[in-house]
Amino acid sequence: MAQTSFDLQAQDGQARTGVIHTPRGDIRTPAFMPVGTAATVKGMLPGSVRETGADILLGNTYHLMLRPGAERINRLGGLHKFMNWDRPILTDSGGFQVMSLSDLRKLTEEGVTFKSHIDGSKHHLTPERSMEIQKLLGSDIVMAFDECPALPADRDRIAESMRLSMRWAQRSRDAFGDRPGHMLFGIMQGGLESDLREESAKALIDIGFDGYAVGGLAVGEGQEAMFSCLDYAPGYLPKDKPRYLMGVGKPDDIVGAVKRGIDMMDCVLPSRSGRTGQAWTRRGQINIKNARHADDPRPIDEHCTCPACSGYSRAYLHHVFRSHEMVSGMLLTWHNLHYFQEIMQGMRDAIAEGRFDAWEADFHAQRALGDIEQL
Predict the structure, then answer these.
(1) Would the pTM count as exceeding 0.85?
(2) Which candidate in 55, 92, 210, 301 is catalytic?
(3) Most CB atoms within 10 A, among 14, 21, 25, 233?
(4) At what angle do helices 356-369 and 251-259 cross, to 10 degrees?
(5) 5-267 belongs to which CATH class?
(6) Is 70 exceeded by the pLDDT of residue 375?
(7) Residues 55, 146, 253, 266: which is the catalytic one?
(8) By C-alpha distance, which of 93, 88, 92 is closest to 28?
């Protein structure tokens, strides 16, 4: 099988652009990964997700192990065939979701025992089992199993958790083994403590991974604190490997992260917002359920080429949302994913041409204008 590699093609300040090569296709970076939690990006067909410009999707180990089960997906030909997506898939390790089940879990050195949020059944997840599940799914980029404390947390708790995650990272590396054509990413932890982040990065580099994630952010600390951490954390990681910021985020979060050296991101925001009537545009966010859109014949964004903007008015989108029609969430999700991928392409071009600062200034200036004036 063909090997994987990362080709860093240009850098402008700390912002980087490049390509992650995999047997299932290239991933252009900076990359935004739509989230297909349960083997689907909600409201979208796989071909439609690809049309927005996505090179890679994210699948969720925790949800897929509970339903329909990793062994079942494997028997049915693997996750790519199961969900009809033939390009790369990254699967998270399950650690973050288990963290959010704090009332339903028991944490030990060995791993985590937890109760399913679906039916209350008991499960045990360890680094070894997480690697096994992700192998059964057939994911192209596998994440090491880690523990992620919610912020704010005291320093001792963050340090203890980080060191446990580093021990689990070694076990994940050992269990992953040698799998040509697949990549294993380690996850840096350490909260907002610079020295703990550096300690974590050194431990991961000693173990050796194909890429490195900055974990433990976007967990309640706020944008200012997140950016302060990203001012130094990516610099602790190897320059020749991809850097992935997990669970981010809003458009201005994404731009700020890329500015600070991040190559990959994922977030449920585009699809979740679409289902709740929120549309993200170059001039900020709009709420389609507001009455002011009821008679507006214009599109969400006059410069957007997505199906929602090229074929439908704000008035129509307002109507179908208020009428609880499924097409509302489908069209708004398509628009949001299209816009997020448009941001990524804009940044890739700007970095390659050495004009990222100008692109970023224009991005913020457009957002400051606010939504287009009412008729």
Answers:
(1) yes
(2) 92
(3) 233
(4) 160
(5) alpha beta
(6) no
(7) 266
(8) 88
